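Subject: for your reference before the review

Hello V.,

The reviewers asked for a structural picture of the protein, and I figured it would be easier to keep everything in one thread rather than splitting it across files. Below is the amino acid sequence we used in the manuscript, unchanged from the supplementary table.
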Amino acid sequence: QLQLGESGGGLVQSGGSLRLSCTASGFTLDYYHIAWFRQAPGKEREGVSCISSTSGNTIYADSVKGRFTISRDNGKNTVYLQMSSLKPEDTAMYYCAALRSKLPLCVILPREYDYWGQGTQVTVSS
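And here is what came back from the structure prediction:
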């Protein structure tokens, strides 16, 4: 059974940092594009960042560029999202997702992804 699990969320003050982890079970992340999405109450799910399977190429939403960093540790079958300089508007449920694609580059479009985790809550207080 293919599963993704997120961890690392929590409550942090504005300007603080958190590192989210996305760990796979039942499959190897090496061959998958991995993305992070977030969804705040009453809002649509939005793409945050992704990392491509082979090249390791990364993409970031404009709203997080320069503050968030995505990385992968294939040995641990885990992808990380390091979040710094957090703002109250970063408050959301954060999800990781996996896509096995022949295309070389990942995308941050929710409809493209096949497997999803249950999410981890990030709350940034002002």
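For the response letter, the relevant points are probably these. The mean pLDDT is 95. The two ends are 40 Å apart (CA to CA).

Happy to draft the paragraph if you're swamped.

O.
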